[in-house]
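Checklist before submission:
- one chain only
- standard amino acids only
- sequence pasted in full

Submission:
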Amino acid sequence: MNPKILVFAGSIRTGAYSGKTADAATKELALQGADVTRISLADYPLPIMDQDLEAEKGVPENAYKLARLIASHDGLLIASPEYNSSIPPLLKNTIDWVSRIHKDGGRPFKPYAGKVAALCSSSDGNFAGARGLYHLRSVLMNCGVEIITPQCSVPGAKDAFDEDGQFKDEQLRRRMETVVRTLIERAKMMSLRADK
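Returned file contents:
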């Protein structure tokens, strides 16, 4: 069975390089046979994580919607920009809210449990946003997500994509192919293990 992979970017800025990287990953996932869902975090706005707010109003419904989406997929592919060598606040806030969910409809619920993720980054600079992935990897692993080793970081992102949204550079294309292949293989293995 083809694994279900959820793809999103850590930025919702118009023309964001991370959005273009997520789109390139989505195409490659489909080419390699994954059942892929591409979403935008713009469709799931959340307030800044605040335990007083949570105590007063509970976890926001959009966090539950995202949690259910994550739980219904075998794996994740996240394409993130880098903010001051770390995770952009939109992405960190989203991960944090979903991590607050422990029950759904009165039943125990761990949306991150048993999930595997691939990480990509992009930047117009030479570091390609890769420094932020160190922190993103750490945060997701703390939530119980397994992170595959291969990653795809896109330098000079302003000029990295052709008019069809594909990478101009052959080495980048091969790197994304490796990331996607590894994610699909690992998601299949984890899904089989969960079914036993």
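Reviewer check: The CA atoms of residues 50 and 97 lie 9 Å apart.
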